[in-house]
Structure formats: structure tokens, C-alpha cells
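Student: Hello, beginner here. Can you help me understand the protein record under this note? Any guidance would be welcome.
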Amino acid sequence: MGMDPSAEPNASRCRRCGARLASDNAEPLCRPCQRAARADGFNPPEVPPEFWDHEQLRNALIRERHIGHVVRSYRRHPFHGLRPIPQEVAARWLNISQPQLARIERGRPIADLERLIQWAKTLRIPQELLWFALPTDGSNERDEVKRRQFLAATILLPEFSRATTASPASVQMPDFVPDSDLRDIVRDMAALRVVLTRQDNILGASAVAPTIIHQLSILRKLSVKSKGEARELLMRLQAAYAEFGSWLSDELGDRDTGQFWIDRALEWSHETADDFIIGYILARKAQRAIDENDPSAAIGLARAAQRCHLTDRVRAAALQYQAIGHASMAETAEFCQAIDRAHELTDS
């Protein structure tokens, strides 16, 4: 007498909905669940309670207390199928870039409480697994976050706390530097910035930031005494270094200093009239507006960035920040229009 296939105790079932898997499906999810899990590139999928029982994920949460390792374990969880969730997708959930997520996954644990809370909420991590408390209401939350940000930033990098009041006069240099030498200095410092970007990817922000601040002090003193083409070259590089300083400040949890440097970057880029640099910095300000939960500002800044002459990659990033702003304001049609345009640019 044959057995009822539905009664087989070892029949493969979808880990998400429990439906029986097709015989040619090697994934742990049924095909509808596979599509649902990957359909929304801006939000993590719904996961069952047992998702958090996975050994590597629990170790990252309870023993290591490292949000970067948590995200990595989340991406590689068997629930998602044979293919891990790409870093690009997870970075989009967290409103950061893929290179930034790569550094966070392999770098030091993040000390910024505001970011920890935001990401824990985004991934829907149960409170009982967290090493910090999620706010139950809005009372005094912002003041506490600001205090923790300040402490984290000053512990990791005191130089950044003093950077906003540092004077170019503190750097001892010759009173006169010929324009020919200035061009060589700009070339060498531009090359150094590329090296520092690579070091940031490997070593993290706290290893790179002191050098950025020192180079900014040099650039500021040189630009004060320069004019014409030499000054324009210096100001363009100064804007690029300031934008990098803003990025590093944000990574270290010092949002106020990050705001200072991104504002200086925009101010200095306007002096050079370099449309690409202006547009790129506007796109970065749109990204920061998303982080600050200011979708209206994000939309406005992203649109302003798109009025500049940008590469397709930067324009697509601006469109993504605009789309996130529209999504936050429940503007479905505008969201679809912006994200479709961003996909067109990235696919071309």
C-alpha cells in the first residue's frame, strides 16, 4: 500500500511559510517566498521568531555585541536561501553605501547609540537580544543620543572635536609658496587623499581622521595666501578633503562635526564653481538628511544635486536618496518614478 506523500515526515518545507517545496527547488524557501524576500530592496524581509535562534547571529548579538557582525550574519542567514543578501541591498536598508557597510562589518564595533538604535529597528531585532535599550517613547531620547555621540566621538578621536575651532595659523609653514610648487602640492595631496580613502576602507575612520584634519589645516593656510588659478585648485581639493572629513565624522558618531565639514565643503566648492563637486556634495547632504529623518530636506537636496552635471553613478545615488525621502512621506508615485530612474541609470 503506497504512502500519502503529504504524510512524509522528512518532506522539505519552506522555512518561511511552511509550504511544501517543489522537487526541483534546492532553495530553503518556496518560490513565492523567494520573490517576496527579495522584492523590496529598501526594507528587510519579514522573518519568523526562530530566525533569531541561528547560532552565528546570536553570537554576534549576545557575545560579540558587534552590529557589523550582526548585519553580516543576518545577510548570510539560511533563511534567505543559498545566496546571501548582497551588501548593496543591506546597505540600502541602512541608508549607507556598500563600501561603508563593508568597513563596518569587518571594523571595530560601532559606538554611536543613535545608529545602533536605528539599525536594530530596521532589522527588527528583538529587544531581549540587544546590549542596549530601544527607546519606548520620545522623551529625552534626542538629548541622550547627543550625549552618547559626543562621548563616543571624543573617545575615538579627540582631534575631530577640536577641528571646528582649529586655526590655520597653528600650522607652521613658509610665508610664501610659489604657484609652481602649489600645483605640485595639490597633486601630491590629491594622491594622498586616494591613499587615505583606501586606508579608511581597511583600517577604519579613527586611523585616518587625524591625517585628514592635518591636511585640511595645511590647505586652509595655503588658500588664505593664494589667488587666481592656484587658489581655485586649492579650494577644490579643500572641498574634497572637507567632504571626506564629514564622512569620517559620521562614521565615528560625531554628527555635529560631520555637519560642520559638509557645510564647509559646500561653501568651498561654490567658490570653485565646479558643478560636479557641488552636485556630489549636495547628494551627500541629501544622504545625511535621510539619516537625520528629514525627508523633505533629502528630497530638495537630491533634486538640487540632479540639476548639476553628475556622472550616472552619482545621479543614481541622488535619485535613491530622493526616493527614500518620498517613501518616508508615503508619496508612492514619486517614489516609483525616482527609483525607476535610478535603476535605469545603474543598469545602463
Notes: Residues 179-203 form the longest helix (25 residues). Residues 274-348 form a domain with the Serine Threonine Protein Phosphatase 5, Tetratricopeptide repeat fold (CATH 1.25.40). Residues 1-10, 138-169 have pLDDT under 50 and may be disordered. The two ends are 59 Å apart (CA to CA).
